[in-house]
UniProtKB/TrEMBL annotation:
InterPro entries: Ac/propionate_kinase (IPR004372), Aliphatic_acid_kin_short-chain (IPR000890), Aliphatic_acid_kinase_CS (IPR023865), ATPase_NBD (IPR043129)
Taxonomic lineage: Bacteria, Bacillati, Bacillota, Clostridia, Lachnospirales
Organism annotation: Sporofaciens musculi
Catalytic residues of the enzyme: D147
Residue numbers binding ATP: K14, H207, L208, G209, N210, G211, D283, F284, R285, G331, I332, G333, E334, N335
Originating gene: ackA
Obligatory cofactor(s): Mg(2+); Mn(2+)
PROSITE patterns: ACETATE_KINASE_1, ACETATE_KINASE_2
Record flagged with keyword Magnesium: yes
Name of the protein described by the UniProt record: Acetate kinase
Signal peptide residues on this chain, from the entry's feature table: none
Record-listed substrate binding positions: R90
Pathway(s) where this gene product acts: Metabolic intermediate biosynthesis; acetyl-CoA biosynthesis; acetyl-CoA from acetate: step 1/2
EC number(s) reported in the record: 2.7.2.1
Amino acid sequence: MNVLVINCGSSSLKFQLINSDSEQVLAKGLCERIGIDGSLTYQPEGGEKVKSDKAMPTHTEAIQFVIDALTDAETGVVKSLSEIGAVGHRVVHGGEKFASSVVITDEVKQAIEDCNDLAPLHNPANLIGINACQKLMPNTPMVAVFDTAFHQTMPEKAYMYGLPYEYYDKYKVRRYGFHGTSHSFVSKRAAELLEKPYDQVKTIVCHLGNGASICAVENGKSVDTSMGLTPLEGLVMGTRSGDIDPAILEFISKKEGLDIAGLMNMLNKKSGVFGLSNNLSSDFRDLEDGANSGNNEARIALEVFAYRVAKYVGSYVAAMNGVDVIAFTAGIGENSGTVRSSVLKYLGYLGISVDEDANKKRGEEIAISTADSKVKVMVIPTNEELAIARETVALV
């Protein structure tokens, strides 16, 4: 079966067409600037990447251009829509309603919409993508795969906040966690590489990208994760602050005259390593270059990031009373040996020994701990699109 995987943002749409039998990516691409002027980047397997400007007033036109590209007589990879057996949609927030992926119905769409206030930047866009696909492919089954679903196995002690219980009771204010599709994929792959049953392994997955989160996976279940009600909590990230003293908000509000919207914009878009580096960059490559050139703020930003990652890893070792494997993934986790090394230097007490040559590799699936290391450390490239395709096939 060919599965079209859709990851829809407010003004963008990423897609892959995957053959579920061979798990081969037949084509992939990106629609950008939807609602502005629009452009489509498309690359068939083994072919050249082509970018073209196309007017995309709405996501419906974007989906139509994707279909046109996939079925194009010269560069397409299928002859007609009938060769697409299902569509898998990434949905960011499923609240407490969804502990697993589901076939999309009108009731499911309503439940996704009910979570809009929990993910105002993401869920409405995800729904737009679903509706656009249903309009153009009304007879094709569709599946919603939720970022939050994997974390629904967390116990109350992990997901409840120290707030009045009524806020959970009325508004479901609690930790949800994100990157669940990635954490699930990587933790399963780590168990395969260890040649151990998934339900007998304690794994800590470090999904380190511009958005970053860590997850404790005990015997195949998420038992804790660093992101919270929203993706703002947890690690210092590219432009997000991560954990801070809540009273800082009142302090800065009075000093700078910022309202709630201004404070949230600062926390989400002006903080993290970008803010720490005195606005140098949120790109870790720039930060590493800066630190190597003597930029003190860039050095501080990198050290703060690695320190926070190590502290979360240590807390999750305690939460699971041990760990078998630590896996690094996502853009920074897969490609920055410097960041990995900076994190691991805090974890020597676990009996970790690093293979320095292996740690220099970029973007490869590889063990970076030595053979005698008591805890295995791996780099495992994530593949959320393949995970979504697998979930979709299993349901349809």
